[in-house]
UniProtKB/TrEMBL annotation:
<keyword id="KW-0238">DNA-binding</keyword>
<protein>
    <submittedName>
        <fullName>GntR family transcriptional regulator</fullName>
    </submittedName>
</protein>
<dbReference type="Pfam" id="PF00392">
    <property type="entry name" value="GntR"/>
</dbReference>
<dbReference type="InterPro" id="IPR000524">
    <property type="entry name" value="Tscrpt_reg_HTH_GntR"/>
</dbReference>
<keyword id="KW-0805">Transcription regulation</keyword>
<keyword id="KW-0804">Transcription</keyword>
<dbReference type="InterPro" id="IPR036388">
    <property type="entry name" value="WH-like_DNA-bd_sf"/>
</dbReference>
<feature type="domain" description="HTH gntR-type">
    <location>
        <begin position="9"/>
        <end position="77"/>
    </location>
</feature>
<dbReference type="InterPro" id="IPR036390">
    <property type="entry name" value="WH_DNA-bd_sf"/>
</dbReference>
Length: 122
């Protein structure tokens, strides 16, 4: 994971998204332990409170869970929850604005599908 300290996105969100990416790619399989808050703070030279804030976001979403005295682990079903979350974000961030602009330009859904298929075949 890399964190961009110059980016507008807060570091704790970058930590949460980095862990999410690790879960989605299989670096942190369901049931496996993730690095501790101390490991995050030492390895990435960040405040432990910042690391905790990012991890707690995922705890609140039931993506990871705490085993007292042992550490943090990836919850069963985390991959599916994250895929759904990211798909919803994708729709909100990209598709809805694409549709609005297409309507303004008179582009049909068939035209959009053809453009997307052209992009995938390149």
């Amino acid at each position: 994971m890399k964190f961009n300290l110059d980016q507008e996105k807060p570091i704790f969100l970058q930590i949460a998204e980095g862990i999410e990416d690790g879960i989605l790619t299989g670096a942190f399989p369901e049931g496996s332990q993730i690095p501790s808050i101390t490991e995050f703070s030492v390895n990435y030279k960040i405040n432990p409170a910042t690391a905790l804030k990012g991890i707690n976001l995922l705890v609140d979403e039931n993506i990871i869970f705490k085993k007292r005295g042992v550490g943090m682990f990836v919850s069963d079903g985390a991959v599916q929850k994250l895929r759904q979350k990211r798909q919803d974000q994708f729709y909100t961030n990209y598709i809805s604005s694409l549709i609005e602009e297409a309507k303004r330009l008179g582009i049909t859904s068939d035209d959009i599908i053809a453009m997307i298929e052209r992009g995938f075949s390149q």
